[in-house]
Design goal:
80 residues; mainly alpha; 3 helices; 0% strand; palmitate; SVIP; SVIP_metazoa
Length: 80
Amino acid sequence: MGMCLPCLGGAADDVVVTPDPETRRRQLAEAAEKRQKETAYRGVKNPEAVERKRKKQEEIEKQAMTTSVSGGGGLKWQVG
């Protein structure tokens, strides 16, 4: 009977302590963001370049919208 006690004593060391709910929530959120990034750039060799191109395109579109509203096409007439 005394032979079983040493192996039960080490069982307490194998127990995994669960983190508090806030830490667990943060870990789950980080994992979800990581999965979304991986699926968004699946098959893309250089995701940073894709992101730069997307931002540049958005800036061009934004600039086109502001110039078309205020300038009427960007043409300037000179009378003289």
